[in-house]
Amino acid sequence: TAMNRAAVFVCALSLAGCSGVQSALDPAGGDALRIYWLTLIMTLGGTLIFLLVTGLLLYAIFAPPERRAWLGRRRTIVVGGLAFPIVVLSGLLPYGLIVMRDTDVPMPGALQVAVTGEQYWWRVKYPEEGARPEFSTANELIIPVGQPVTVTVTAADVIHSFWIPNLGGKIDMIPGRINRLSFTAERPGIYRGVCAEFCGDQHARMAFDVVALEPAAFDAWRAAQAKPAREPDLPSLVRGRDLFRAAGCGSCHVVRGTEADGAFGPDLTHVGSRRTIGAGQFPNNVGTLAGWIANTQHIKPGVRMPSYGSFTGEELRSLAAYLESLK
Ligand code: CUA
Description:
Elements: H1 2-16, H2 30-62, H3 65-68, H4 74-102, E1 111-118, E2 121-126, E3 135-138, E4 140-144, E5 148-155, E6 160-163, E7 171-173, E8 179-184, E9 189-195, E10 207-213, H5 215-226, H6 235-246, E11 276-277, E12 282-283, H7 286-299, H8 313-324
Parallel strand pairs: 1-5, 4-10
Antiparallel strand pairs: 1-2, 2-3, 5-8, 6-7, 6-9, 9-10, 11-12
Helix pairs in contact: 2-4, 6-8, 7-8
Bound molecules: dinuclear copper ion (CUA).
The site of dinuclear copper ion has 9 residues, from loops.
């Protein structure tokens, strides 16, 4: 019947948000699982109390006076209005506090990553460990499965908020302050992180990729990222590199191993290895890169990078091909 179909539709709709790369209801690790249970218990508890109170309210309004008299007795008020809320809140408050405390304890053996929120992208630094040098990337967090990760966050301009719904809770990114969040991915996969604090016009377009790799694949990725940029070996790539130089891209962007050493924008040393560009906006390929360079202010008005609309199509292709070659 139409009624049944409507019921199925509503159920399907309410479950549609429960899985996927950006869902707190699809936990991929213990920290997210604890928050999932906290959400479930708080929601169920809140719903039950709401129904109870609404039921009593309707009863108080519509029941015959002699049957609702008990609602006004002192004992009902003491038990329902004082004892019950005190018992429920004394249980829920410590539970919530314990769950939240657990998410920011430093974990032994954790991978340390430093993330800075900037309008409207993410600067990601992998600090030195043993003999490995520090390197910086942008808009992606690559982590090993099964190993705790401790992210220290701050902001360069305004307040942002770091949130990977599948892996853990939110943490504010505040200029001049360092906050910390620990989590572990227990399932390899690709997740999506988002900015969870309104930070300006392009707040909604401030996302990043999280890729949880098997430890061996993570080590290989890390070793590759630590290397300087690849030298262009084809004439078309050399042309792209020369255009990159001539346009002054290196005054804002670093390409390690070249003279490009601007610290302002995202590090482009291995930009070709990233899944997406524009802080999670487009798949990373020559076409989207060329479009981005020419139209930043059209695609994400207000980002710090100006549109470079004066390049010809051929120049844009060479420039984008050079950047794509930086794997
Ligand atoms: Cu950054 Cu919202």
